[in-house]
Structure formats: structure tokens, C-alpha cells
Design goal:
By secondary structure, the protein is an alpha+beta fold. The protein contains five helices and four strands, in the order H-H-E-E-E-H-H-E-H. Helices cover 40% and strands 11% of the residues. A hairpin with a 4-residue loop joins strand 2 and strand 3. The chain starts with 7 loop residues before the first helix and ends in a 14-residue tail after the last helix.
Length: 149
């Protein structure tokens, strides 16, 4: 078993500093949409899963997911923590299950759900793909762009 490089107190402080709102990827997505002239609201109160961004007129809910926290199938998302592995595996599994339930609930009420993965933001053409998907102009979005999965 590998030991943590931080003391329990330091690890606790590091984990407390992890933000769930106004993250760097979320701010980048907001900047892209604002630059494209696409309006949105924050928080998604009253909607299943409280999407990060909501465009009521377009009936689009946008979730900005960190690959590790939501168990994406990329290298970062597939990384398994060595410390407290059982806890983290269960936690990420619950996150994935909740994400699927949320998507189903939103789609059942007529919303389009756009999921932006942290790793996809590094791909060339990401901004154009995201804008097209939000506007509903993208029939399918390549794996290198914003994905709905």
C-alpha cells in the first residue's frame, strides 16, 4: 500500500480547497459562450442535478465535469487513487450513477444536455464544437470536441 505524500492535516486542507463552482474549466466554458454571444444562467436551481450553466430558451443544460471526479474514460479519469482506494472507487461510481440519472431526468423533460469534459477542452477546435453543440447545430460532435456522453 502506498502512503500519502501529505500528512492527514495537509491532505484535508488540500481536499477542502477543491472547488465545485467557478472552477477554471467552468470559467473557460463561460468565457467561450459569452464571447460567442450566447447567454446563460448559473446554477440551474430547480433542475435535476443543478447544471453548471442553463440556457432556458434553448432548453440546454451544460455540465462541466472534471475527468477524475466524474470517472471519465480518459487517462486522468481512469487513474485510480492509491490512498483510500475503496472510498474513492465507490465515490466516483456514485458520481457516475448520479450523472446518468440526472441526464435521463433532464432529457425526459425535453432538455438537451451538454457535458463538457475537462480533457476535451485541450483539443483544437473545442470552442467551435462547443458553440455548435449549444446552438443545436451539431448533429454529432467528435470525441475531440465537447461530448454529450
Amino acid at each position: 500500500m502506498a502512503t500519502d505524500v501529505f500528512t492527514p492535516e495537509k491532505r484535508s486542507a488540500v481536499m477542502r480547497a477543491v472547488k465545485s463552482r467557478d472552477t477554471t474549466p467552468e470559467l473557460a466554458v463561460r468565457r467561450i459562450l459569452r464571447t460567442a454571444g450566447i447567454g446563460y444562467r448559473l446554477g440551474g436551481r430547480g433542475l435535476p442535478g443543478r447544471p453548471d450553466l442553463v440556457m432556458s430558451g434553448r432548453r440546454v443544460a451544460v455540465f462541466v465535469h472534471g475527468c477524475f471526479w466524474h470517472g471519465h474514460d480518459c487517462a486522468r479519469g481512469a487513474r485510480q487513487p492509491r490512498a483510500n482506494a475503496d472510498y474513492w472507487s465507490a465515490k466516483i461510481g456514485r458520481n457516475r450513477s448520479r450523472d446518468a440519472t440526472t441526464r435521463d431526468a433532464l432529457e425526459a423533460t425535453g432538455w438537451r444536455v451538454v457535458t463538457v469534459w475537462e480533457c476535451d477542452m485541450k483539443a483544437g477546435g473545442f470552442a467551435e464544437d462547443l458553440i455548435a453543440e449549444v446552438r443545436g447545430q451539431a448533429a454529432t460532435v467528435s470525441a475531440s470536441g465537447a461530448s454529450s456522453a
